[in-house]
Amino acid sequence: MxxxxxxxxxxxxxxxxxxxxxxxxxxxAAMLRPSNxxxxxxxxxxxxxxxxxxxxxQSQVRYYIYALLFVVFDVEAVxxxxxxxxxxxxxxxxxxxxxxxxxxxxxxxVYAIRKGVLKWV
Length: 121
Description:
Shape: flat
Number of helices: 3
Radius of gyration: 26 Å
Helix content: 55-70%
Number of strands: 0
Structural class: mainly alpha
Order of helices and strands: HHH
């Protein structure tokens, strides 16, 4: 067997050991845990208060948009860090491209502010 395949055998052995240990510990936990089914345990539990009313409630869309904007600007940070590391190699072209990238995101932020999305009510 070549050294190339020996590397794969060791990786497969570690994956197999990991799967075996997970299954072993889950089966031990299933055997040791108490089993005491009760109707009260099947109820929906929300902060110690029994649920009252309909099971459907309307949420405001602005919370989802707020979270989506957070994700967009979080992704922006993910792109800026590698750019900052390689800025010397990229030179003026890299700087211009990043300034354009930030400008596009700022246009989106200004649009969101003008639409009132970031007003937390």
